[in-house]
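Journal club prep — side note

Before the paper discussion, L.F. wants everyone to see what a predicted structure for a comparable chain looks like in token form. Sequence:
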Amino acid sequence: MHQRILGVLVAVFAALLLLAPGVAAAQTPALDPAIAAAAKAQQKQQVEQPLNNKPVWDEVRSGVPLVTTVSGRETNVLIQPEGQTWRALRNSWFSVVAGWALVVLVLIIAAYYLINGTRQLAGKPTGRKVRRFSAWQRSIHWATAITFVILAITGLIILFGKNILLPLIGYTLFSWLSILSKNLHNFVGPLFILCTVLLFFTFVRDNIWRKHDFAWIGSFGGLFSGKDAPSGKFNGGEKLWFWGGVLICGVIVAASGLILDFPNFNQTRSTMQVANLVHITIATLFMLAGLGHIYMGTIGMAGAADAMRTGYVDETWAKEHHEYWYNDIKAGKIPGALDAPAGPAGKLEQKPA
């Protein structure tokens, strides 16, 4: 009896196994033709290109947040497609325009120097010295200038090195040079910001705009006439450099540089991409203005370098290039300007205030 019951149960179970696929198929709704076609195409692609999982990568590159085991902002966006746009802009328009702008300005300055040479004094130096900058003013100026040059050179290597230096010096040397440039740029940047802040507060009082500064700018500082327009301690061109370069460019370069230098501020990738393009643009303008400032402070004008090297200038230099400042010194309005050791012709005579 038990054997007959067991046999019936086995037979029923076997019948169910045979009928199950048919029943399931009968209850499955018809597939969407488009979905079926896509599935068929995917199956075919897996046979022909087994390592090309296109639908998965399309989803990864979509920018839609997915699921990851890494915690943090944007960590669930595996690939950001806008990064390709940033890369294309950085390596095309921004780097090309920046590079040619610097080259063209260097050529213009070189041509001007070859035609006009160093601008000499119209009168004969008297030998009497006037103090133009204190030790602190010269120290903060040189600290800012040195960090600026380091950032400019390393920035140019980072931006153009792969296209210009790599073919010339090879992969090994360029690798060491690029690593050195990156680290110098990252660590000197905050130091430059500190120097710029100190420089601003050191010189801001003497860079307040006066009416005669606009006359100086209108005459281009005598750049083509050969005769300076009267000015105070700093002329209109130096004040443009101070407010436009040191302040405006300095603030924007500092802010964008800090965003790039410290990604642990939790900024997004898009923020860093925009900051990079802004940094390149303003840093280029900063370097363009800096080239003009460096030229006029060195080989462009005789005696200008003495002011930042020794702190003193000749009486004739002060009178010809900064006449209002020179008159204030003679009138006794600038204490300490005549503390220089007497030259061969003696001390500059000071009129009572």
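L.F.'s comment for the group: Residues 23-29 have pLDDT under 50 and may be disordered. Keep this in mind when we get to the figures.
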